[in-house]
């Protein structure tokens, strides 16, 4: 009985019962931004005016992740981190718009 249970558990583990990814979006630095827009898969796009820094949000659905800053003053860096691995980073210190964008297989 124990052997059958162990074999069953091993089969379930090896058939790709995937868990949802852990997605973290951060914006940090010494600057500020007039507007920050972010989008996680399966959620509505959200826009914040004059958000506090540092900024961080978490998500779990596979798909396209985007964070966009407009009206950057000073230096800011955006990062997208999936399952503890940084997959995208961008820095602005010119006042230009700043975007981090990463697509995962859905």
TrEMBL record:
Q: Which organism is it from?
A: Lentzea fradiae
Q: What InterPro entries does the record point to?
A: MmpS_C
Question: Which UniProt key words apply to this protein?
Answer: Signal
Q: What is this protein called?
A: Uncharacterized protein
| Keyword Signal belongs to the record | yes
Signal peptide start and end residues: 1-20
